[in-house]
Amino acid sequence: MPNRLTVLAGPTAVGKGTVVAWIREHHPEVWISVSATTRPIRPGEIDGVHYHFVTDAQFDEMIEEGALLEWAVVHKAARYGTPKAPVEQALEMARPALLEIDLQGARQVRESMPGARFVFLAPPSWDELVNRLVGRGTESADERERRLETARGELAAESEFDHVIVNREVQAAGVELVSLMNS
Questions:
Q1: Rounded to the nearest 5°, which phi and psi values hold at 110?
Q2: Residue 41 carries which DSSP code?
Q3: Residue 9 to residue 154: CA distance in whole angstroms
Q4: Staple partner for 50: which of 45, 54, 73, 135, CB 3.0–4.6 Å?
């Protein structure tokens, strides 16, 4: 079924964004949702491409209007959510549709769209996950600790997913994910 929604989740720093960026570049037929977030923009990010960067007031309005498919507070800090209308439009057009979201969001989507395909992106090991997070250099020491605390719980949820892809190498993980989406 080509218009089945695929939900990609996994722990912080596992490489979800990197895998999705590879898919965006090599598989333009895949529609990729752009989440809204209240967190500050990072260097190199583009509003409307990587995220829709919104204020707390704008996010509150989206919740009130029922405009989000899912939303959550992530890493005890910023809020993230998936605008609903673009997802519905992509599915109506029968495009392979991909959401890259956190575990809380994936659980909400499972409630509202149980027919979606749920894919967990796993690290090769805990040490590799820690190395990737530290190597990014985008978070403070306190933020890294918060994210690693969250990651421990996220890793424990792997069994809730339909498929698991171990992200040893970005291209291989991307190819595997697109193959799953087309199956």
A1: -60, -35
A2: P
A3: 9
A4: 45
Residue given tokens 């009130």 in the structure block: 64
56-106 pLDDT per residue, tens:
999 999 999 999 999 988 767 899 999 999 999 999 998 899 999 888 889
Instruction: Say if residue 114 is exposed, middle or buried (CB neighbours under 10 Å; 0-12, 13-18, 19+).
Output: exposed
Q: Report the length, in residues, of the chain.
A: 183
CB contact at 8 A, 179 and 6: no
Between vectors from CA 132 to CA 129 and to CA 136, what angle results, nearest 5°?
Answer: 145
Contact 98, 33 (CB under 8 A): yes
Distance in angstroms (rounded) separating the CA atoms of residues 183 and 177: 10
